[in-house]
Write the structure tokens for this entry.
Amino acid sequence: MAILSKEEAQAILKKVLAYSKADSCEISLSGSDGGNIRYARNAVSTAGQISVMNLSVSSTFGKKTGSASINEFDDASLQKVVKRAEELAMLAPENPEFMPLLGPQTFQESITYNEKTAAITPDTRAEMVGKSLQISKAAGLEAAGFLENSTRFNSVMNSKNLFAYNKSTDVSFSVTIRNKEGTGSGYIEQSFNDLDKMDTLALSKIAASKATGSASAKAIEPGKYTVILEPLAASDMLSNMFRGFDARSADEGRSFMSKKGGGTRLGEQLFSDNVNIYSDPMNPEIPSAAWNGDGLAIKRTQWVEKGVVKNLSYSRYWAGQKGVQPLP
């Protein structure tokens, strides 16, 4: 029952919403089904299968909101979780930044779901890990890794007639390969929504190459060096950097996007002309849901163009304060 279709999720959400007596109510329903396999010192150590589903209710009276969640889906339990959320709302203080619920929205049809990834079995995972172990054993190295896959759905409905649903798949793999002397180590990590793009053999070859190549590493003097970062390192840096692209943090002087003396650095050139950064939920390599937790549509957004900061992210509340459109 962990993965519901759009129609099944909608039916449960409508039932729960009918129990609400609050001024406004928002309900989210999500679930996941997947498995994993872990190995260390060139041998599988654990494997598992996980299936979960959860429903959360947020009830509001005026500007007072209470939330409750449950993982039981009989009628009595569903009525109980709605009542609990309403009881908590009556006890809660008013939210000075309260935003009313959104009405119906239009979303693109996401490309986050892949049938082949959803059909992964324990045998599939074992075969993929076997390819990784083949590399480490042949090279006289030791590998420790983790392979995980999941199929998920997320849905939301509110009393203003908003409804959104998304189904997605993911397969992720990481491995550390070391030489037996402990003087060399290599790490690789990758994830896709499409199983056909995951090549544990090729990835393990990269980790093994790092392990043998780093065994004779030498110290160098501190200084400025030109380096080329692999995607994993670059993505970590970008993730940290993009926390500063929040408009409110920038406006309030809490970000590197804050301008000295007030304001933001929107429109300034902060990067090389060669730097262009955008997000796109329809990107075939890293697709995402076409809506966010607030129920806002997510579209392709250019954040940096030829080194110039083109956009900052605005929540609904902060967009209202600044008289601009929200930008998730």
In short: Helices lie at 6-18, 75-91, 115-118, 122-138, 200-213, 231-241, 247-251, 316-322. The mean pLDDT is 96. The beta strands are 24-40, 43-61, 64-70, 141-158, 163-179, 185-192, 277-279, 301-305, 308-309.
